[in-house]
Amino acid sequence: MSRQGPIVGIDLGGTNVQIGVVARDDRAAGARIVGRCRRKTKADEGLESVLARVAEGVDRACADAGLSRGGLRAVGIGAPGAVEPSSGVVLEAVNLRWDNVPLAGLLSERLGVPVVVDNDVNAAVWGEFVAGAGRGVTDVLGVWVGTGIGGGLVLGGRLHYGHFLTAGEIGHMHVLPTNPPGQRTLEHNCSRSAVVDRIVRLVRSNRKSMVVDLVGGDFEKIRSKTIAEAYAAGDALVREVVDDSADLLGAHVGGIVTLLALPRVVLGGGLTEAVGPPYVARVRDAVRRVAFPDKCKAVEVVASELLDDAGIVGAALLAAERMGGEEK
């Protein structure tokens, strides 16, 4: 195995697995994807099935890049849940129904190359920090708004894990503690799932929205792009719900900016990407209203630059770093 070869980055989700062969490219801020593969996770088929699908996807991505698995230096993978990075054990991944899975060891044995495992949003935020919207500063908070809400924190140019290795879990912080159980956390109120639930509840209470027509009355079909289309068209109900969620998210992030004096926040995830600049601007305004003192109101709140590739690139870059630096 070449110590100077490219590295595969894997973004392992509850529904999809995205795999990319990542090579260094100074013209692309240090990283370029030269081969790809996408697979369904199919977690309900069990751990062995997921591992086999990932391994097959790595081979396909390598073939797309014109190389064999033996030419790889390492594999980095971002997993959706609590991870112990030093051992590569996935402590808990609800979407995959995994507990204490030694993913690094199992995948390394199957692939025949070293494997580095981290949390999926940590990987995405690291990708943005090194090669995307986080470049140029040493401290960044990343917030990914999708089915749930995940976060990652870079302090002093390093991913910050904290004593229990779980730093960044912003979505599980209680922001409305007097709400009924199941409605108290940031994820309960500001994720794409929460936005959809609120839209559906309001429609069923006789509020009008074009979303009904967009999905043919089947609310199970509502996706981020559905919300974005209705938002762009000026749908009053969708704008009310999305703007309210953005205001709450921004107020909470503004408190974190106050706590840590952060110069930049990067927003990513399916809802952020779909609604786009209006959503980012709404969150930015709320962050700056709350941030204290006044000099903290200069915080930059920006959208992800790498988009869907953030997790792939970040996982590969983390693997490169832990293998002793990026390939030359």
Write up this protein.
- The structure is a single chain.
- By secondary structure, the protein is an alpha/beta fold.
- The protein folds into two domains: 7-128 and 309-322, 2-Layer Sandwich (Nucleotidyltransferase, domain 5), CATH 3.30.420.40; 136-304, ATPase, nucleotide binding domain (Nucleotidyltransferase, domain 5).
- It is 39% helix and 21% strand.
- The chain has eleven helices and 13 strands.
- It has helices spanning 47-64, 103-111, 120-131, 186-190, 192-204, 211-214, 224-232, 236-260, 270-275, 277-290, 310-322, and strands spanning 7-12, 16-23, 32-40, 74-79, 82-84, 89-93, 98-101, 115-119, 140-145, 149-155, 158-159, 264-268, 300-303.
- It has a five-stranded mixed sheet with strand order 3-2-1-4-8, sandwiched between helices. It has a five-stranded mixed sheet with strand order 11-10-9-12-13, with helices on both faces. The protein has a three-stranded antiparallel sheet with strand order 5-6-7, covered by helices on one side.
- α5 packs antiparallel against α8 (236-260).
- The two termini are 15 Å apart.
- The relative contact order is 0.16.
List the helices and strands and how they pair.
Elements: E1 7-12, E2 16-23, E3 32-40, H1 47-64, E4 74-79, E5 82-84, E6 89-93, E7 98-101, H2 103-111, E8 115-119, H3 120-131, E9 140-145, E10 149-155, E11 158-159, H4 186-190, H5 192-204, H6 211-214, H7 224-232, H8 236-260, E12 264-268, H9 270-275, H10 277-290, E13 300-303, H11 310-322
Helix pairs in contact: 3-11, 5-8, 8-10
